[in-house]
Design brief:
The protein has one domain. The chain contains eight helices and three strands. Strands 1-2-3 form a three-stranded antiparallel β-sheet. The chain is globular.
């Protein structure tokens, strides 16, 4: 497995570990994650309609528990650090929205979870970067949490018949900009790089264009394009 994970020379492993695209490890982990997600959705779709509300709430709490586990584990192992100890990466934040959406079935929260989660999980699985580290637990957590980001919105869409409102993709983008401002202030205060707002990811992604701030502009354009495509798919 070590040959399939790249560490950026001279940087902290916790910040710079990435999976080599199309390596054996990449195929096994990302492929298995997508397969488990699909099978889990098929199983959940077999739940009787009168019990899907409860099933969604259970799934939501399961996602929320996984969302808070990494900081707790870091603290227990006395490895907590401002640079990676807060659940402020995009997919970490989205996990809270996904759990919240499943528990509450709030329309706006569902839309945010779907657009953010589908976009974030897609690129996280295609170009994995392990910001929490490469220890066994954190690798498992990475793939389990991203399973939830895909499974939760799809469950609400297909099992709970929650549709997307017109222009919801634009509203979700606006909320993401607000979230980015808040996280950016935290980055500035504590010299962090949450949501990759200060430095681009080291993962090889074709949408990472240039250095700061140009790659952020490319991110914004690609983000809205992804949101619009997901709107067309799930409306």
């Amino acid at each position: 497995m070590n040959d399939d994970i790249t560490l950026r020379q001279g940087d902290d492993e916790m910040q710079e570990a990435t999976a080599k695209i199309f390596s054996g490890f990449w195929w096994r982990t990302s492929g298995l994650t997508l397969a488990i997600t699909g099978l889990s959705l098929l199983v959940l779709m077999q739940v009787p309609s009168e019990q899907t509300r409860f099933a969604g709430q259970v799934l939501g709490w399961w996602i929320l528990v996984w969302a808070v586990l990494p900081p707790i584990v870091h603290a227990l192992k006395k490895q907590w650090d401002w640079r990676y100890g807060l659940p402020l990466q995009l997919c970490d934040i989205t996990a809270f929205f996904t759990g919240w959406a499943l528990v509450s079935e709030n329309q706006l929260i569902h839309e945010i979870a779907l657009y953010w989660g589908m976009t974030g999980a897609l690129h996280a699985l295609l170009t994995p970067q392990f910001t929490q580290g490469t220890q066994f637990f954190f690798l498992i957590e990475f793939y389990v949490s991203h399973t939830g980001l895909i499974l939760g919105p799809m469950f609400l869409t297909y099992a709970r018949s929650m549709e997307l409102r017109p222009w919801s993709w634009l509203e979700a983008g606006g909320w993401l900009f607000i979230c980015g401002i808040v996280v950016g202030l935290i980055n500035w205060r504590h010299q962090c790089n949450y949501m990759f707002l200060c430095r681009p990811p080291t993962a090889k992604n074709p949408f990472i264009i240039g250095q700061w701030p140009w790659y952020l502009i490319a991110f914004a354009v690609v983000m809205f394009l992804h949101f619009w495509v997901f709107y067309l798919i799930f409306r």
